[in-house]
Amino acid sequence: MERCKSVSTIQRMIGGKWKIEILFYIALKDVRHFGQLRRCIGNISESTLSKQLRELVADGFLTRTDFGEVPPRVEYALTPQGESFVPILLALKQWGEKELGL
Amino acid sequence: MERCKSVSTIQRMIGGKWKIEILFYIALKDVRHFGQLRRCIGNISESTLSKQLRELVADGFLTRTDFGEVPPRVEYALTPQGESFVPILLALKQWGEKELGL
DNA sequence: CAGGATCCCGGTCGATACTG
DNA sequence: CAGTATCGACCGGGATCCTG
């Protein structure tokens, strides 16, 4: 039986409780800032958002640009790898709306 | 900001550590039996496999058919909802192979 | 063979407080 | 504003044993 390493790796990368939702807002809603994300996503804590963002950066989905200004300004954006994941995000969203009626 | 309920719901349904892999084997490799799945999937415990299968059944992805025979024979198969998810599984697999080189 | 029951551990996530 | 630090609760998942 052919094993499928890619599937389990993806599951690990996007399996976090909020990962898909974070990517969704950044990719499809043009949300770029920490505070925006926190307000968009229901009831995520700051520490959790921070950690999941760092993991998404580490896994190559996002870039993090710190402008070194006061007040602080940081922008998150998709990497090419992240961009290539957008069709799947759209498919998931549309699947949920159609199959689950959400 | 438009909230996106469908995304978080999907994350909850397929966020389990082995969910995507289980669906992958049933959908694309025609694996139907408990023991087969356990052997295909690396190092999943029986109790965990059992629980995740039950959740996939409860969430409408799978059907479970118990033939009531001795020795026991049970078959898992995709529901129509599960079938409709197959394109996303394929997309995930192909994305992983292409972007991650797996 | 297909799993249920039980126990337990580790990691994830959340709440709170604090910083540059 | 954009986080980090710390702590603790919770629960998903693993190990083991048992059953029809």
User: What is the succession of H and E elements of chain A?
Assistant: HHHHEEH
Q: Give the name of the CATH superfamily of chain A.
A: Winged helix-like DNA-binding domain superfamily/Winged helix DNA-binding domain
Percent range for β-strand residues of chain A: 5-15%
Radius of gyration of chain A: 15 Å
First CA to last CA of chain A: what distance? 37 Å
| Helical percentage of chain A | 55-70%
Q: Would you give the CATH topology of chain A?
A: Arc Repressor Mutant, subunit A
| Structural class determined from secondary elements of chain A | mainly alpha
**Biggest β-sheet strands, sense, barrel of chain A:** 2 strands, antiparallel
The CATH class of chain A is Mainly Alpha
What is the spatial order of strands in the main beta sheet of chain A?
1-2
Give the largest interface. A-B, 40 and 40 residues
Corresponding CATH architecture of chain A: Orthogonal Bundle
Contiguous low-pLDDT stretches of chain A (5 residues minimum) are: none
Count of discrete structural domains of chain A: 1
Mean pLDDT value of chain A: 94
Number of strands of chain A: 2
Task: Name the quaternary structure.
Answer: homodimer
What is the overall number of helices of chain A? Answer: 5
Pfam families (chains A, B): HxlR
Domain HTH hxlR-type (chains A, B): 4-102
GO molecular function (chains A, B): DNA binding
Keywords (chains A, B): DNA-binding, Transcription, Transcription regulation
